[in-house]
Design brief:
The complex is a heterodimer of chains A (490) and B (297). With 490 residues, chain A is an all-alpha fold. Chain A is 66% helix and 0% strand. The N and C termini of chain A lie far apart (63 Å). The relative contact order of chain A is 0.08. Chain B is of the alpha/beta class and 297 residues long. In chain B, 46% of the residues lie in helices and 10% in strands. Chain B is built from 13 helices and eight strands. Chain B has a four-stranded parallel sheet with strand order 2-1-3-4, sandwiched between helices. The radius of gyration of chain B is 19 Å and the shape is globular. The two termini of chain B are 30 Å apart. The chains are: A mainly alpha (490), B alpha/beta (297). The interface between A and B is large, with 60 and 63 residues. Bound molecules: iron/sulfur cluster (4 copies). The site of one iron/sulfur cluster has 13 residues of chain A, from helix 16. The site of one iron/sulfur cluster has 13 residues of chain A, from helix 21 and helix 24.
Chain lengths: 490, 297
């Protein structure tokens, strides 16, 4: 009686959770791809999408993905054998237990009948396999300390609950023939834990047993030209498909920036965690916004994360959607004035003109003096080798940025600069020409030196530096000025 | 046998795969062994203007990995090349900095002393392989083909750091083109920037600069522009393609861009697929029509 009651409770929570998660997929968005479409539109778009793949060619692709990536998980094996062994142990044994043990009322097999009264060797064996897998998981996280592998509360919960279920089950098998009382207690414990895990499944990392295969299948038949409504839905599903395995962060091209800057959001797997929360509530504090903007813009779009993600998540497109949405939020993103913007420029046709221009204008207005250029204050002294920071001091010397002292205003630098040459009215368009920036530095006019449009439109082509008869490190000084200006605006 | 550790950077595997493909095919033909290292990450180039410490650590980590392999580095991208060189230069000048870098690297069990030589692909072909040896492998030289060589800023300058070639009158790339039988035309904007560093920052300026260069080499009668850098290639291939549609330039005004190992590979008789000719956005398969038909004489 109590047992049946518990099962129903667990199933109801599971059901509600499932409906909640599914409704999120069709209600919420990561970016603005589905602006103007209702939940109803998205559901019907999904049905249309599914109908369109019911042909031989697409079904063959899906079949192949099912066998290779979902059952055999070949892509994990290729990257990391140990992880593959870990996952295969847990996956196969867990599936076995689910089908032949948890559902044994529904699925009857002759192999088990023999063990009716004695210890069931099959169950114990499967339990041992799961435990070994979990052991490997713990070993990777705590002893091997795979670099930049972060363990969240959810990761730990998943490992612990599975371990508890298996251990209680095995204990139950072992003492089955001994004391009846303790068998009863353990049986209740085992049932309770299993039902708890079931009830919480849609809210936990274990949900990936549904979503990850779905993501793998969806990405095998979808690309960036698919219906935007379906892309938005798929991206929501992908957030649930992420298992926080950290494969992306391990391979991420900019992971070193996480080591120096300490901003979690630089790591793609942590960005996924952020996005999961963010889609439900898009009002975030300025501090959080600044951190995620830096994290998501500090990306070379190298595609590695997408290539390696074992859940088959199209991270490239996910970043694209999330980045566009996050940089629209008024706060200036200084990284937009660096080569990290190349990818965005290359894809500008995919972004609406206004949406494209606004965040760029925001950061330019913040870092340049804008229309007030002529009024830039004349008294703030410039400090090129920033005071007490030993590291920056050292850089000042190795780059010889103090060489501005040797400038004798010959204007060579401005004559050879391709940016200056490009404008008929260069003085108006650029505020200052390169030699004038060097002059302002020499005069200690910090705001002038850092606020001109010339500085932020410098190509770093080094023509000026190469042609300076006095050996002034013009471009290196400009780079340093940008660093100082960005630092000052933080 | 020459052996290098290959550094491809971020753009090539994602957007200019043909460059790596062709470079490997050509290297293979020349008996150059390329060792792969999956551990390499971003060279630091895009961080230079926003965080110098991060830039340095990114670059230094790659250099330390190469040093661990005990091999010289072959770099395909000129911006990667420039930034690795710059970082090596900064660290070399400054003992305190070297110490700081090594403390950082020690966390991953790495260290950097400056032993590894950083070499751009074109330098390796010119200096380590040599024009003479390349010449021996040319089986289908071009004829009547005019090529405009684009040197690329970050390899050439600042010359005291990069030491790639003479910064005002370079010749290495032209010699490499000439050995294929093609003519290297003279054009006035040859050493100017392709505009890539400002793409996404000031698109109009970036496209103006690229457009000027393309018009200039067209005026010098070049049939193709030839590059040795993924940024330059994207600029003259994908961005030129955008410009053709957005700026309403006439189609017959286009001048396709080719990465150098594609050009060299064709002259070596390597197949179109192994050079990824079809992976370029603007059609370059027409290049094959410039190959001399009677190669026997
Ligand atoms: S995005 Fe993919 S690779 Fe990254 S943590 Fe999630 S599942 Fe793993
Ligand atoms: S695309 Fe961005 S997030 Fe993904 S691996 Fe490359 S740098 Fe990291
Ligand atoms: S070229 Fe050198 S000396 Fe001449 S103005 Fe420029 S920085 Fe000064
Ligand atoms: S490095 Fe900057 S200032 Fe110097 S010539 Fe190039 S664009 Fe002009």
């Amino acid at each position: 009686m109590l047992y049946t009651f518990m099962v129903y409770i667990a199933l109801s929570i599971f059901g509600i959770g499932l409906i909640y998660s599914l409704s999120n997929w069709f209600r919420l968005t990561v970016g603005s791809n589905a602006d103007g479409t209702t939940t109803g539109n998205r559901i019907s778009a999904a049905f249309k999408g599914i109908a369109s793949i019911l042909n031989k060619e697409k079904l063959t692709i899906l079949g192949k993905v099912f066998v290779q990536d979902i059952l055999l998980q070949k892509h994990i094996k290729k990257q990391d054998r140990l992880r593959w062994i870990m996952h295969m142990l847990i996956f196969t044994a867990f599936m076995f237990l689910l089908v032949f043990h948890a559902f044994d009322k529904i699925i009857k097999t002759p192999i088990f009948n023999r063990f009716y009264l004695s210890m069931n060797l099959w169950l114990v064996l499967a339990g041992l396999m799961v435990l070994t897998g979990l052991g490997v998981a713990l070993y990777r996280r705590y002893i091997l300390k795979v670099s930049r592998l972060k363990t969240s509360g959810m990761d730990l919960y998943t490992i612990l609950i599975i371990a508890a279920i298996i251990l209680s089950g095995m204990l139950m098998e072992i003492i089955k023939l001994g004391s009846y009382d303790s068998y009863q207690t353990i049986w209740w414990l085992h049932i309770f834990l299993s039902l708890l895990a079931l009830a919480l499944l849609p809210f936990s990392k274990m949900f990936h047993m549904f979503t990850t295969p779905l993501s793998l299948l969806a990405n095998a038949v979808m690309d960036e030209n698919s219906d935007p409504a379906n892309i938005a839905t798929k991206q929501m599903m992908e957030l649930d498909a992420c298992t926080h395995c950290d494969t992306c962060s391990k391979h991420c091209s900019v992971a070193v920036a996480y080591d120096t800057l300490g901003n979690d959001n630089i790591l793609p797997s942590e960005r996924m965690t952020f996005l999961k929360e963010y889609v439900a509530n898009k009002n975030i504090s300025t501090k959080k916004l600044a951190a995620i903007q830096q994290g998501i813009y500090l990306c070379t779009n190298c595609d590695r994360c997408t290539v390696v993600c074992p859940a088959g998540i199209n991270l490239r497109e996910l970043w694209f959607s999330a980045r566009e949405a996050l940089i629209q939020k008024k706060l200036p993103v200084d990284l937009m004035l660096t080569p990290f913007s190349y990818f965005r420029g290359l894809n500008h046709q995919r972004i609406g003109q206004k949406q494209y221009d606004i965040p760029l204008a925001t950061v330019k207005n913040t870092l340049t003096s804008g229309d007030d250029f002529s009024q830039a204050t004349l008294d703030a002294p410039i400090v090129l080798d920033h005071g007490d920071n030993e590291f920056q001091n050292a850089l000042g010397i190795s780059e010889r940025t103090e060489s501005f002292n040797y400038c004798f205003s010959c204007e060579n630098c401005s004559t050879v600069c391709p940016v200056v040459i490009n404008y008929a009215d260069s003085q108006q368009s650029l505020d200052l020409l390169p030699h004038q920036i060097i002059r302002s530095v020499a005069l200690g006019l910090k705001d002038m030196a850092t606020g001109s449009k010339m500085l932020w439109n410098c190509l770093t082509c080094y023509q000026c530096q190469e042609h300076c008869p006095q050996g002034v490190k013009v471009t290196d000084i400009f780079n340093k000025l940008k660093l100082i200006s960005i630092e000052d605006h933080k | 046998m020459m052996k290098y550790t290959l550094f491809v950077g971020c753009n090539i595997p994602a957007r200019v795969q043909q460059y790596e493909l062709a470079a490997r095919s050509v290297a293979n033909r020349l008996g150059i062994e390329l060792v792969e290292n999956q551990e390499y990450k971003c060279c630091g180039y895009p961080m230079q203007n926003s965080d110098n410490k991060t830039f340095l650590m990114m670059a230094a980590r790659n250099l330390a990995l190469a040093e661990k392999e005990g091999l010289d580095m072959m770099v395909l991208c000129k911006c990667c090349f420039g930034s690795l060189k710059k970082a090596a230069h900064q660290i070399k000048q400054d003992a305190a900095l070297q110490k700081e870098v090594n403390t950082f690297l020690a966390k991953e069990g790495l260290s950097y002393s400056g032993k590894t030589a950083i070499k751009h692909f074109l330098s390796i072909l010119f200096h380590d392989v040599g024009i003479k040896k390349i010449k021996e492998t040319i089986s289908s030289p071009f004829t009547d083909l005019n090529i405009a060589t684009h040197y690329g800023c970050h390899a050439l300058r600042p010359s005291d750091v990069t030491q790639f070639d003479n910064p005002v009158n370079p010749s290495l790339f032209d010699d490499l083109v000439k050995v294929t039988g093609a003519k290297s035309v003279e054009w006035s904007l040859q050493l100017e920037c392709c505009g890539a560093p400002l793409m996404g920052v000031n698109d109009k300026l970036s496209m103006d600069l690229a457009g000027k260069k393309l018009a200039d080499c067209k005026a010098a009668n070049a049939d193709y522009i030839c590059v040795g850098c993924p940024y330059c290639q994207m600029q003259f291939d994908r961005i030129q393609n955008l410009m053709l549609s957005e700026r309403g330039q006439k189609q017959n005004n286009e001048i396709p861009s080719i990465v150098y190992p594609q050009l060299l590979g064709l002259a070596m008789g390597i197949s179109e697929e192994a050079l990824g000719l079809k992976m370029n956005m603007l059609d370059i398969t027409t290049l094959e029509s410039y190959i001399q038909t009677e190669t026997e004489n």
